[in-house]
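Regression test attached.
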Amino acid sequence: MRLAAEALSGERGGEVIFSGTSFAVACGEALLVTGPNGAGKTTLLRILAGLLRPAAGRLALDGGGEEWPDVGPACHYLGHFNAMKTALTVEENLVFWQRFLGQARMTVSEALEAVGLEDIEHLPFGYLSTGQRRRAAIARLLISYRPVWLLDEPTAGLDRASEGRFGQLMRGHLREGGMIVAATHLPLGLEGAGELRMGEEAT
Amino acid sequence: MFALYLREVRLGVRAGGGALTGVLFFLAVVAVIPFGVGPDLDLLARIGPAVLWIGALLASLLGLERLFQADREDGSLDMLLIADGRHMLALSVFVKCLAHWTANVLPLVAVAPLLGLFMNVPPVGLAAATLTLLIGTPAITFIGAVGAALVVALPRGGLLVSVLILPLSIPVLIFGVAASRGAVAEPDPFLPPFLILTALTLFFAVIGPAAAALALRNAD
């Protein structure tokens, strides 16, 4: 499987933010999207997820077969928001996402253990700290299988230990043949990851 | 899909008690009418079903603008949009509407007979008004979903939703009231307006979620 973008350009509010961005990610590879604020990292990820239309260019997921015809259905998108309901408990949130997203992989308790939240699964999501909320959102990546992970500032709010644990999870995903496209300012601990610098060729 | 329904109902019941707000508003609207109109029992009985319908219509508009806004604010809406390939977005919207109706509007239908007593509506009229509300209010929710989807990106869209969807819900109101009056007032028929009301609900159950899905996909 191969995720390829050709001469992609994105716009927000009628203004072109980036243009002519091309890259390719194969199975087991990661791509770090870096660049200053406003360079269009989030816009790029949202275009990849199918939430925004590209202003120009082409985007394709080759070799996904019938199961993964397009990037959208084949991806986990971890955006700025955690997509969890504050009134429900951590466990209820994750059980819902597992049943809704399908393709179950880990059980909810396994996933919570993997992110170190096994003791607080019964708490309402609203009671959690910022870092704990982020870890619960990361657990969503684990409970159902998607070959492509689109991560937008995934480690925002995480402490050092959780960052390390998340690095392991990402490496595990790559070993299994997954792909990761991550927008970040911080090193994620992924050796050999490609880097896409945004916001430089535009100036 | 059933998981989505369960989650939405659970949220509706647990977070903030939107159902109680609606019921209290409904009670307030219906309870002040006899004071305004005066103690003419025949008149109250005659306008009773209409008052019940108007009260339920206005009460069911409360909270509609939050239908998608809450999901947008916490990022769940992005997930629903991305999951479009697996669960058709219009179907997700349909399920959300059903859940919203169960948690917020069904209680209004349940208290309608009780409030009808305020208006001196005879038992047959109470039964007819409740039945027409049960059949007709889903249509308002489906219409409301379109309005809620259109204003999802606006921070204060509440009033705009009401203004957008009230004209569309007028036919529902007309046939709902006509059917409930037909059950009591002798020459008027009950079945024809009731069947049209049912048709309206079925019609909007198809059009509403599809239109709302289209609006959500183009929200930003």
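Expected vs. actual: identical. Chain B has a mean pLDDT of 91.
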